[in-house]
Structure formats: structure tokens, C-alpha cells
Amino acid sequence: MDGSTRAPPAAGDRRPRDLRADFFRGMALWFIFIDHIPGNWLGNLTLRNLALSDATEAFVLLAGYAAGIAYGAALDRDGWLFAGAQVVRRVGTLYVAHIVLFVMFTAQVGLSAATLDAAIYIDELHLDAFGQEPYRALLEALLLRFQPAFLNILPLYIVLLLQFALLLPLLRHPRLLLALAVVFYAVVRAFNLELPTWAGGGWFFNPLAWQLLFFIGCTLGYRAPDGARPPLAIRWHWLLGAAVALWLVFTFVLLFLGWHRPNLGLLAPRWFTGLLTDVDKTSLHPFRLLSILALTYLVAHAVPIGAAWLRSRMAAPFVLMGKQGLPVFCSGILFAFLGRLALEQSDRWTMQAAVNLAGLLSLVAVGALAAWYKERERAPRAATPQPVTPGRPA
To answer: What is the mean pLDDT of residues 251-265?
Structure first.
């Protein structure tokens, strides 16, 4: 747990990039874009309508997985102090991105509301406080205590990474880390602990509870120098697979009868449909946690790490978006509001197709631009030739 450094691993010890994480993170980012557009028909096919979890759970789990890989390697190579500093630097990047997104989104919504005479945008997206007390609202936004709709995922991620920076050495003791995360999750849910907001109440995504899913992802991603398997890397067994599949079927039926077809739900026992009453997203209800873990178990065993289709042209756009998650996410928030404006003009299938196709292409373009810039930035620069002084040999 000290700040001592270690020698970097040999080139042959480097882990190959897990394209599964990139692909499914890209899918999650696309789903977030789709789900943020009211009236989007494609939203009927996203994860939130098929399981008791959605793109947010997938995003947080995969964020933890990526953090376990990247910062776990830094921990073993350079020690806690430097690895923790890297995490804090990432927090700074996310914070700046959040504030820039907040300003741009507020301006976008405010201009649209004024131009279209549609104050409903301000109310629905919880930006009315900004019009009433703009200076106080800006201060509270800087403190992450003012979070309009759709601007609550990055603050969640920021706090999760800050917790991770403090507990980073426990990656070497994953069972202890998970035990602490489970106990803290149980205490938070039992006593309704939450972080306060300016408007009263707690954060829409309570990081004190969501930390459990994030740390599960961290332990799945981390590999000790001895190559030991993480404690949650459960081998495939058909009985466990069948149990997981039955759980997903059970929750789908519950979701279908309780939310999608409540008229049919009236025919089911009241205790059954009543199970959905207390399934909250804010503090990550155990049903939601089990659902995303069940999906992860099936997908992780169905898609091997070296699956050839992950390098196909069909998968490439989502892999690209997953690799450039931050700019794609921020752009997706802004593009989604534009998509909403378009669908409010017409929701015919032609406009639906145009909005979703344009949105996907725009997200891919942002990912491609970000990847191009990073590649150019990392490329070795040619040495600038020195001018030759007259009368001296070159």
C-alpha cells in the first residue's frame, strides 16, 4: 500500500485489449442516446425494455472493468501514489467535460425554449432553477449539487473514481474489497444514505450504492502479476447458466406485465406485479444489480475475448465509440436533444429512421475524430531541421 514503484512488465506480459468491453460500451452509449429521445420508436428495443437494467448499469460495470485493467496495471508497476494520481487526473478531465457539457446543454435547451416558445423543455429537464437563480445555479453545478436531467452520469462516474483512488490498493485483495463494497451497499440501502442536492433530496444516481457495481467491474478487470483469476471470474456451468437464464426470463415477464402491459398484469397475482413497486434505480435495487450481473455472465461466456466478429466492419463503429467513450457520451447528450426537436416536428417512420441513423453516424464521426486526434498527438514528431549557417558545412 506504499507509493513504491515497480519495474514495468515485459512486452510479452502485456494483456491484449478486450474488444468486448469496447464493443458493449459503444452499444451502451448508443442506447443512452436512443433512450434520451422521447418518442423514439427504437427505444422499445433497448436494454431497459428487455431487462431490469439498462445502459447505465452496463456503462458503470464496464467503466469499472476498464479502470481495473488500466489503473490496476499502473498500481503494480508504479505503486499506489502514482496510480492514484492518474485516477485523480482522470477525475479532473471528467469534471471539466461535465462543466463544459452543462454549459452547452443549458444554452442549447434555453435557446430552444426561447425560440420555440416551449418552456416545457426547461421544466422537464429541471433547468428552471438556472433561470431563477443563475449565479447560485452555476455555483451549485460546479459543486455537483445541481444536476439537470441527463447530466447526472458524469458526476456519478467522478465520485466513483474518487472512491476508487482511495481504495486502489485493495485491488490486490479483491475479496476484501468486494466484502467492504457489499457491506457499504447494504448499509446505504438500509439507512437511505445519499449525497444531497441543491434542490433537496439526493442524487439521481446514488454513488454510495452504485460503487458496488463499479468495484465488481474493477475486480473483474484487474489481473495480479501472478496471473491469478479474479474471484468473480466464475467458470461456465450449465446449471448456473440455466439459473441465470431463468432469472432473466422471470424479470422480463415481471417487466412486461408490470410496466409494458399493465392490463394483462391485472390478471397476474398482485404480489407478483407488486415486486416492481420498490425496484428503484437511484440506489441500484438488488433486482437491477442481479440482472446486469446475470447478463454479464451469459455474454462473457457466449463471446470469447478473441471473437473474430469483434474485428469485423459491423462491429467497428461500436468498438470505436467504446474506445472514445467520453467525447461520444457528451456529444450524444447534445445530439439527443436535437433528435427530440426533430421528432416533435414529425414522428413518421422516415423521420424516425433519419434521426436514429444521423445520430449513430454523428456519434461514430465524433469517435473517429477523437481517435484521429489522439493518434496524431501520440505519433513521434519528426525532428525540425536546423538552419545551415552560411560559410559553415552542413
So the answer is: 88
